[in-house]
Amino acid sequence: MNKNLATRFMKIIEVILKEPADKSIFSNNINPIRVGLILFRVIDEVQTQYQYSQNSTDLMKEAIDGQLQACLEMFNDPDQVMFMIE
Q: How far apart are the C-alpha atoms of 51 and 82, rounded to whole Å?
């Protein structure tokens, strides 16, 4: 990956993170916590390796955090949440 591809990738992630929580990539996945953590790590690595804007990266991380919280609130059964955490 080069810097141009990294920038395009981050712009795509920004668009994806603007989706509402009920239609986000987290709600359509069996383990939204894992998806969020992996995405968090990828964003951090791209920012570090390609000097992507720290401000934009922080905004994306806040969006991930907010969407994960909203996604987890949709679960009514605590056993489902514990299964994801384990």
A: 36
Q: Is 71 strand, coil or helix?
A: helix
CA-based nearest residue to 33, from 70, 76, 4, 77: 70
- Domain with 39, as residue range(s), is 3-85
Q: Which residues have a Cβ under 8 Å from the Cβ of 58 and sit 6 or more positions away?
A: none
Residues ≥6 apart with Cβ < 8 Å to 7 = 50, 52
Amino acid at 29: N
pLDDT digits (tens, 9 = 90+) for 35-51: 888 999 999 999 999 88
The parts of the chain modelled with pLDDT lower than 70 are 21-22, 75, 80-86
Per the structure, how many domains does the chain have? 1
